[in-house]
Amino acid sequence: xxxxxxxxxxxxxxxxxxxxxxxxxxxxxxxxxxxxxxxxxxxxxxxxxxxxxxxxxxxxxxxxxxxxxxxxxxxxxxx
Length: 79
Fold this sequence. Notes:
Elements: H1 9-17, H2 22-29, H3 49-58, H4 69-77
Helix pairs in contact: 1-2, 3-4
């Protein structure tokens, strides 16, 4: 079984090595500006629970309403 076409293979592999899920790695590596920007977003730990919740909502992460900050961070990293 072959994986879907990845626009930026090097970035995809680096993200997988960091522990990102296949889905999230592919989404990032296939973004139109893949490899152009990066490192500008604040770390999840620096964000408020509300900000993390909003990001989880955008990604439609289930169970987010009952998650604490640490759980939201984990869910976002593993999405």
